[in-house]
Amino acid sequence: MAGFEVFYQTIRADLTSKNDLLVGCVHFQCIQRGLVGVGVGEQFTETDESSAGSQLMTNGWNQSQDTYVLRYINAKTKQKLLIKCVKVSDILIVSALIVSADSNGSSVTLQTNDYIADDYKTFGNAFVSGSVDSIAKKLDEEVFDKLWPKPTTATDESSLREPTRQRHDPLREPMPAYGPNYGGGLGYDPMYGGAQWPPPYGGADLDPL
Questions:
Q1: Strand partners, 110
Q2: CB contact at 8 A, 83 and 69
Q3: What's the half-sphere exposure (Cβ side, CA atoms, 13 Å) at 188?
Q4: Smallest Cα–Cα separation from 41: which of 22, 15, 28, 59?
Q5: Which ranges are annotated Basic and acidic residues under compositional bias (predicted)?
Q6: What are phi and psi of 91, to 5 degrees?
Q7: What DSSP state is assigned to residue 198?
Q8: pTM of the model
Q9: How many helices (H) and strands (E) does the chain have?
Q10: Is CATH 3.40.1000.30 the right assignment for the domain spanning 4-147?
Q11: Predicted confidence (pLDDT) per residue in 149-167, tens digit
């Protein structure tokens, strides 16, 4: 995840468990989606919409090691997102809910030890091999892409609307008719005064009449 190492340094001193770092990854993906943090807890306040928010973790974000509840808002659309991460044994259940009249939600279950190593306070050793990108991919596919489906590109739309045009293939066209020609049928070419083209040389051998 490009830029994650810089973000990691901002939360390193606050990390007290593997799940803390995993929640930090969830937060980072929220920021990548244009959201900013406005607080902890489930209840959005009147000041959340007017708040500038922050890309940094909100104070007290990991006060509870069993349940993490973080509030986010899109600074442009004012759309609200609630993130809830619940620890169950060695797994972390991450749930996301868009706060609206027709609430849309999604969730994913992460095996903490599959992603976070024991030495989680050292960036170079914090993740199981390759798991930084693996976490981002899983969160995108299972959580964020379900909340905000990726739009179909204009190219894809046009290819669906416009039927495929067959290319002209002269080898597939029927050969012009040979033999006597008395009108504008096959073999008739007005560029040559109405005569058959190509001229039917040797045609008598093929046409006994």
A1: 92
A2: yes
A3: 9
A4: 59
A5: 158-172
A6: -120, 160
A7: S
A8: 0.71
A9: 8, 5
A10: yes
A11: 876 655 544 444 444 455 5
